[in-house]
Structures are given as C-alpha cells and as structure tokens.
Specification:
Length: about 160
C-alpha cells in the first residue's frame, strides 16, 4: 500500500469552538474534520510549510510559522484499507475571527468540543484524534495506529513530551 504524509491543523474562534470542514472528497467524504492536506513531497515541503499552505488555501488566512504548535504525529497503518498515513498534527495558537467561505473541498462550521462526538466524523477521529487533541494539544505526542477496516482500531502512544 502507498504511504502518504499529511498534516491536520486545528483552529478555533474566540469562543473556543473548533473549525471543521465537511468534506466533499475522499478520504472522509461527508465527514467533519480539521483542515489539512498532503505534503508536496516533490517540492521538499516540510510539514510546517504544508500546514501554513493548507491554512492559506482552505481559509484564506496567511499565518506565521511561529503561531503553529506541532502537538502530535500519528502513523496510521492501512487507513480505510487503502494506504498508510503519517500525519503531523498542528494547533494554531491564535484564534480566527470569521468562518471561511465554502470551497471545492467542502464547507466550514464552528463546533464546541462537546458537540464533536455527535457529528459524523471518521471513527479513527472519534476514538483517537479528538481524545489526543484534548489531552495533548499543549504538549507533543507520537502514536501509531492499526486502522485496517477489518480489525478493531488499535493504537499505541510511543512518546509524550
């Protein structure tokens, strides 16, 4: 299976509500998720550069690299049975003021953390991503997960700093 490298970026408004995108495309079509995307590896793009680019492309905001905090890294084996993912997780340290306009990848909304478990989100996000975000967003955590669709989600924390 192919191995893909990507970023997810968590942004919130002044009320502390999380910005989520209801995706029109795979992976996670018709689910709410943080913004993000794949690294442009042919250009040698770093995860931090990718996070800044994705924020600009998806929200129109230009952010300073120092305003992003790398809080996690997850290696997911066999996500949806189609490939392996290495994801870098960032939290934007500042708040955003307005809801970004809809785009070809989907539309945005803000949600309080308490509402997210009731949304249509990927099961890996429900069991792994959001609990990790709530617990480690101001630290750093490295994890690995077996996400094969024919097996129960199994994950292990490798290191916490």
């Amino acid at each position: 299976m192919p191995f893909k490298i990507s970023v997810l970026v968590f942004l919130r408004n002044k009320k502390g509500e999380e910005l989520l995108l209801k995706r029109k495309k795979t992976p996670n079509k018709d689910c709410w998720s943080p913004i993000g995307g794949k690294l442009e590896m042919s250009l040698g793009e770093s995860p931090l550069e990718c996070a800044c680019r994705e924020i600009q492309e998806e929200t129109g905001l230009t952010v300073n690299e120092k305003d992003l905090h790398l809080y996690g890294m997850i290696s997911e084996k066999s996500y949806e049975g189609t490939g392996h993912w290495l994801m870098f997780l960032y939290r934007y340290k500042k708040t955003i003021q307005t809801l970004p306009p809809a785009m070809d990848e989907g539309h945005f909304s803000f949600f309080p953390l308490s509402a997210i478990p009731d949304l249509p989100i990927p099961e890996t996000d429900r069991q792994l991503l959001w609990p990790i975000y709530e617990k480690y967003q101001d630290r750093f955590v490295a994890m690995r997960a077996n996400c094969h669709p024919d097996q129960p989600l199994n994950f292990q924390i490798e290191e916490v700093i």
